[in-house]
Design a protein that fits this description.
mainly alpha, about 0% strand, elongated
């Protein structure tokens, strides 16, 4: 049974490799988001213990590191759509194994960037939470610092989507 599974999804086609790539993007993005939110929320708990009226200003800063999990999810959806996995495993596109391995690397690369940027965004959010705790009038500016970290998570997602389209394009469309 395992031999047939491996032959079907990893040797004769690249569908298994592509699915692993999508799962890597989701897993790494979600782990990073959980770690980033923990960092930001731990800091916010300390500030809110002394100034509970700042909850509304701190909520966005606590939630910002959560976006990377969604970016990993979006990358996985694009990979699944391009191999027609969402319709049915039986109708999945017959990917050559090297293309499936390419999609695996796309998912891993996007996931690693999401993991690292979410952790760093959590640390930057914690610093911004300290700023708001000391100077509540700086709440608007404090959001900009972790938003700058977000930029690279978005860039990785966009490149991941482009690479997914490029890898799954028919060879005739590449010239």
């Amino acid at each position: 049974m395992w031999e047939q599974f491996i032959n079907t999804y990893f040797i004769h086609t690249g569908v298994g490799w592509a699915v692993l790539g999508g799962m890597a993007a989701v897993m790494l993005g979600c782990v990073g988001s959980a770690m980033g939110i923990r960092i930001a929320c731990s800091q916010a708990a300390g500030v809110l213990a002394e100034k509970p009226d700042l909850f509304g200003k701190l909520l966005v800063l606590m939630a910002l590191p959560g976006t990377q999990g969604f970016y990993g999810f979006i990358c996985a959806i694009f990979i699944a759509m391009k191999i027609n996995l969402i319709a049915s495993i039986d109708q999945a596109v017959k990917l050559a194994p090297p293309i499936g391995i390419g999609l695996l690397f796309v998912g891993i690369c996007v996931g690693v960037v999401q993991l690292i940027s979410a952790i760093n965004q959590g640390m930057t959010s914690a610093a911004s939470i300290n700023l708001v705790g000391k100077r509540p009038d700086e709440g608007g500016r404090a959001i900009l610092f972790p938003a700058l970290v977000e930029t690279y998570a978005v860039v990785a997602l966009l490149i991941g989507i482009l690479m997914t389209f490029w890898l799954t394009a028919p060879l005739s469309s590449l010239g």
